[in-house]
């Protein structure tokens, strides 16, 4: 049995569930849990997230992150999500001149603050909380832009909500999943770095399932216009995720 399989079996046993019960609850084919627990098939990150939720565990409690080996993770923007909130900079994001300039200004705080805290370093606690909620509501609306929500998008969204300390059951946030929501410019306090940060998150989320569709692009563009992000800056961010057709 693989290391991942041992962790999976122990977590399921601790939750008091049989393999068949897990398969029934998650709508999996027969013997799929056996295949995961014996290592016969690799565990996708999305499935790990679903199992962690069923077992009432954090993802890292279910399977140590370094043990998750999935092509979905390796080839997806999801693999970079954790870097948004630790002390590691995302290389592509820091090619953004606006973000890079801000980070250089607060560089002496890098070892003490998360990426989000660095972005919001000049805001009060109340302002940061309002911005976090605004980000989550906007991303929730982005997920519903194409009228379907993938497992990858939901994992990204839930992880982000957890990292930002937002109540995912908040009605205003849940409503954003089904009703179009546009970010409020006042919440961003005319801070370009916060606006750019939101756009990067939106593109990361939209690309998490491997494809950014027109409805998502239209919504991201509309949000950029509402926030009055310079068009050339918007296009530079977009270029990191979308290849223009000629």
Low-confidence stretches: 68-80, 85-89
- Terminal Cα separation, in Å? 50 Å
- Please, what is the average pLDDT? 78
CATH architectural group of the largest domain = Orthogonal Bundle
> CATH topology of the largest domain, what is it called?
TerB-like
Structure, described:
It is elongated, with a radius of gyration of 19 Å. It has 246 residues and is an all-alpha fold. The protein folds into two domains: 72 residues, lambda repressor-like DNA-binding domains (434 Repressor (Amino-terminal Domain)); 163 residues, TerB-like, CATH 1.10.3680. 55% of the residues lie in helices and 0% in strands. It is built from 14 helices and no strands. Helix 12 runs antiparallel to helix 13.
Topology record:
Blueprint: H1 3-14, H2 19-26, H3 32-38, H4 45-54, H5 59-62, H6 71-74, H7 97-105, H8 115-119, H9 125-143, H10 151-164, H11 171-176, H12 192-207, H13 214-226, H14 231-239
Helix pairs in contact: 9-10, 9-12, 12-13
């Amino acid at each position: 049995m693989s290391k991942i399989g041992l962790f999976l079996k122990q977590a399921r046993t601790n939750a008091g569930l049989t393999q068949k019960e897990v398969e029934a609850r998650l709508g999996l084919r027969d013997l799929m849990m056996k295949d995961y627990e014996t290592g016969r098939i690799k565990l996708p990150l999305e499935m790990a997230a679903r199992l962690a939720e069923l077992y009432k565990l954090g993802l890292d409690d279910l399977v140590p992150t370094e043990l998750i080996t999935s092509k979905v993770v390796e080839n997806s923007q999801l693999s970079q999500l954790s870097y948004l909130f630790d002390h590691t900079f995302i290389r592509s994001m820091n090619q953004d001149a606006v973000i890079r300039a801000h980070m250089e200004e607060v560089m002496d705080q890098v070892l003490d603050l998360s990426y989000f805290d660095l972005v919001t370093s000049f805001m009060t606690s109340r302002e940061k909380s309002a911005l976090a909620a605004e980000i989550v509501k906007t991303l929730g609306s982005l997920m519903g832009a194409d009228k379907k929500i993938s497992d990858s998008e939901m994992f990204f969204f839930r992880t982000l909500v957890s990292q930002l300390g937002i109540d995912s059951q908040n009605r205003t946030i849940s409503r954003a999943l089904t009703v179009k929501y546009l970010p409020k410019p006042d919440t961003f306090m005319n801070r370009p770095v916060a606006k750019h940060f939101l756009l990067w998150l939106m593109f990361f989320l939209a690309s998490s399932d491997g494809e950014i569709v027109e409805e998502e692009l239209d919504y991201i563009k509309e949000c950029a216009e509402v926030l009055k992000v310079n068009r050339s800056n918007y296009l530079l961010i977009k270029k990191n995720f979308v290849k223009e057709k000629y």
